[in-house]
């Protein structure tokens, strides 16, 4: 059920790509000057592919993720998600695409502080239309796979930074999205914890057959992905 929006998960195979952008451009004005953040970005990601987006702070990585995540307007160019041209959709239709096809992991976990680990993973599933029993079972499955089976009823304040980020990963994957967008998902963790969380993220993404676009400045983590793009002066290389 997609409220009439023409998204068909089978179109991922028909079109060959989960995400495809063409001529994606974003500019803004500051102090009377126009600054081009993205300059005609062309990008294609196949189902199940994990792609790194490398670039220093301020290079436009987050801006690109906001564009393809349909979180911000003011972009020019084409954005196709699972074969659907998303750049022309209205606000409600964009919300449906995000709900049905996308998952998000941020540098900071953004968990709801008054909800425990299970409830944080349950909530997006309820919004997606799952029953509470289905959502509880799926949450327990994911959190257990992420080695949090003993922390299901703990609130974020009772979890370590790495544990909080694992809950955020479970939340992003709960609805089995076609594409996960991750913005510096381990950037707030120490190196050892970052390695553990990232390895678990990659394992679960691959097991689900989900595609992922991961923005990072960490060359070592990027080398563990299928492909690496570098964002330089608003263009991909």
TrEMBL record:
GO terms for cellular component: membrane protein complex; plasma membrane. Pfam families: ABC_tran. It comes from the Bacteria. One of its GO terms (biological process) is protein localization to outer membrane. Residues 19-237 form the ABC transporter domain. One of its GO terms (molecular function) is ATP hydrolysis activity. Keywords: ATP-binding, Cell inner membrane, Cell membrane, Lipoprotein, Membrane, Nucleotide-binding, Transport. Belongs to the ABC transporter superfamily. Macrolide exporter (TC 3.A.1.122) family. This is Lipoprotein-releasing system ATP-binding protein.
């Amino acid at each position: 059920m997609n409220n009439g929006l023409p998204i068909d998960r089978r179109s991922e195979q028909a079109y060959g790509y989960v995400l495809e952008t063409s001529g994606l451009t974003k500019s803004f004005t500051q102090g009377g000057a126009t600054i081009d953040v993205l300059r005609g970005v062309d990008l294609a990601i196949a189902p199940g592919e994990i792609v790194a987006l490398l670039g220093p702070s301020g290079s436009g990585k987050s801006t690109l993720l906001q564009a393809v995540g349909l979180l911000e307007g003011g972009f020019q160019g084409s954005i196709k998600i699972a074969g659907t041209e998303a750049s022309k959709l209205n606000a409600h239709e964009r919300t449906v695409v995000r709900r049905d096809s996308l998952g998000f992991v941020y540098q900071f976990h953004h968990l709801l502080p008054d909800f425990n680990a299970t409830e944080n993973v349950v909530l997006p599933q309820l919004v997606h239309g799952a029953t509470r029993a289905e959502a509880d079972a799926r949450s327990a499955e994911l959190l257990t796979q992420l080695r949090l089976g003993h922390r299901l009823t703990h609130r974020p304040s009772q979890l370590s930074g790495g544990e909080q980020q694992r809950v955020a990963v479970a939340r992003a994957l709960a609805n089995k999205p076609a594409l996960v967008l991750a913005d510096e998902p381990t950037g707030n963790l120490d190196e050892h914890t970052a390695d553990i969380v990232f390895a678990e993220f990659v394992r679960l993404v691959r097991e689900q057959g989900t595609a992922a676009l991961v923005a990072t400045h960490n060359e070592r983590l990027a080398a563990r992905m299928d492909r690496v793009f570098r964002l330089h002066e608003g263009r991909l290389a």
